[in-house]
Amino acid sequence: MPEKLKIFGERHTNTNYLSKLIELNLDCELVEGVVPTYIRTIENLLGKQWLRDAWFERHRKDNLGWKHSAVGDFAIPADIGFVTLTKNPYAWLLSMYRRPYHQQYTTPPTLEEFLQLPWQTLGRENMDGPAANPIALWNIKNASFRKLPDAQTLHLTTEATFVDAAAVITQIAEKFDVTRLQEEFVDFARSTKKRADRDGDYYRDYYLNERWRSELSDEAIALINQALDTELVSFYGYTLL
After folding, report:
1. Short-list 187, 161, 117, CA closest to 12
2. Rounded to an integer, what distance in angstroms lies between the CA atom of residue 4 and that of residue 2?
3. Which end of the chain, N or C, is less surrounded by CB atoms within 10 Å?
């Protein structure tokens, strides 16, 4: 069975939370999916992002790339298990709209405009240029996860971590035959990126009860439905609105 685990998941899918859960509960090594702190420090001083791309290009054989990247056509090491994270496409698009990582807009777009704008990708995303729009980005990234071998891969959803994080850890432990660090499940306070006035119960209710639906106009839903890969939507357990 794999000796290490590698997480792949787009931004806004709770990869940090899942990583912490694994570190707290399972006796296994996580293959790093972000750059070392010193690289980020240098980049911040220079005001540039190219160092991260260069670092991942150099170390791709060792760490298989950025955790938010599309899965490439690389040789699959037998000692690594893969865990992918996917989020409901409608909820994910709203998250990206609120915080559009690495995008520059002269004027903040409306949601409907945002859904039709090209998405500028980074070198470390392992893609051939920009995505046609953020919806296409969801399709491309989540389709790429299916390149990973079934025997070495567990596909999870962000929503599953909200429903029952302990059950998710059990799934990982059983899939990869990983030893638990203790009998009782240990949870972790979710990302500090979240607003201080919104706790885990708020986000659990927001996502599991699909409160985000009220933020989508009929036009936005139509735009999303036109571009979504329906086979992928079904594969990950979602349905079109």
Report:
1. 161
2. 6
3. N
